[in-house]
Amino acid sequence: MRSILDLLFPKKCIGCSKIGNYFCLSCIANIKQTELVCPFCERLSLGGMTHPICRRKYGLDGLWSLGIYEKPLKNAIQKLKYKWIEDLAKVLADITIEYWAKKGTFLLDKIKKDQGKNWILVPVPLHKKRQNWRGFNQAEQLACNLGQKLDLQMENALIRVKNTKPQVSLDAYSRKQNIKGAFILNSKCQIQNSNVILVDDVWTTGSTLKECGYILKRGGVKSVWVLTIAR
Length: 231
Ligand SMILES: [Zn+2]
Ligand SMILES: [Zn+2]
Prior knowledge:
The chain is of the alpha/beta class.
């Protein structure tokens, strides 16, 4: 059913402005996929799995991203963050899973093999202050929609205790320093021995996601894969 808002402000394709949906089929087909890389050394890796020599006890186990951080994906992610549009997160989650299934990657096969048992989705949290100001967390919206589609549980297993400076303005070293100690585990969540898919919108240098992975693994999580819309 179309609401009055849809009639007044019809949905337009973020890529080409065609009226109808946030992403038209040809723009979806034109999303440039990223090469799958190891999250540790960022060199090519089969299925995005961390190379055996790059594995660390509290390190990430793999990384899967949908596309390159450029138009139209970039515009979509910016809209997701700064201007809340209803169901854009759902559209992005649907596209992600569609591409994912087509590529038949290692991670999805693994989840299927385990029948989703012990797999949970965890969004990168925002600080309470920022979340209150913005009204929502875009990573949580994505994780929630991915969870519905994959039939997996979403848990807010991490809490951001430090209201960090925006990472965009910092170099790689400062990013790492900035994010240190920014997250703690949510004691309400049972995460021991689970496998986590850590969800965020973009992988830039990975320092935030690596820190989240570190905290989760220190808390007893078996494996942590990162899933982002863009890289
Ligand atoms: Zn389009
Ligand atoms: Zn590597």
